[in-house]
């Protein structure tokens, strides 16, 4: 994806396999779709872009909680994905998955189910994980 046509709207810090990652959510200007760039800290303490989070890993991002999980095969999930929830930083109203392999975004819920999830804006969606 050409990041030049996208505007950063949110950043999330996540630890995956002991590595600090910064996940940047962007909105593409011409289409309004969400796109992502992932950066890791290098040996010189500089951020450098990461092209993959790993075929056995996924990242979940939302305004109130972000986390990386692996291995994903036991959950029958496709790896190298970023799952995201709508938040007040992005008004596209999407709950989706961003595929790091090809830069495509997929809706997790059909647009027809979105009105069922609409609330008054006081409560943001978040990820919940059992221990």
TrEMBL record:
Among Pfam families, the record links this protein to: Beta-prop_KIB1-4
Establish whether keyword Acetylation is in the entry.
no
Signal sequence annotation = 1-29
**The KIB1-4 beta-propeller domain covers which part of the protein?**
10-99
- Entry superkingdom: Eukaryota
**Keyword list, A-Z:** Signal
Extract the PANTHER family matched here.
F-BOX/KELCH-REPEAT PROTEIN-RELATED, OS11G0624400 PROTEIN
Q: What is this protein called?
A: KIB1-4 beta-propeller domain-containing protein
Organism from which the protein derives:
Eleusine coracana subsp. coracana
- Taxonomic lineage of this organism? Eukaryota, Viridiplantae, Streptophyta, Embryophyta, Tracheophyta
């Amino acid at each position: 994806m050409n990041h030049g046509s996208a505007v950063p709207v949110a950043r999330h810090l996540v630890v995956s396999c002991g590595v600090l990652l910064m996940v940047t959510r962007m909105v593409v200007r011409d289409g309004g779709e969400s796109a992502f760039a992932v950066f890791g800290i290098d040996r010189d303490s500089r951020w450098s872009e990461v092209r993959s989070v790993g075929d056995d890993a996924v990242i979940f991002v939302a305004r109130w909680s972000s986390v990386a999980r692996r291995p994903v095969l036991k959950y029958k999930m496709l790896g190298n994905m970023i799952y995201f929830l709508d938040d007040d930083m992005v008004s596209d109203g999407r709950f989706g998955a961003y595929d790091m392999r090809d830069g495509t975004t997929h809706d997790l819920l059909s647009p027809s189910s979105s009105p069922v999830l609409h609330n008054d804006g006081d409560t943001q969606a978040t990820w919940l994980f059992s221990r």
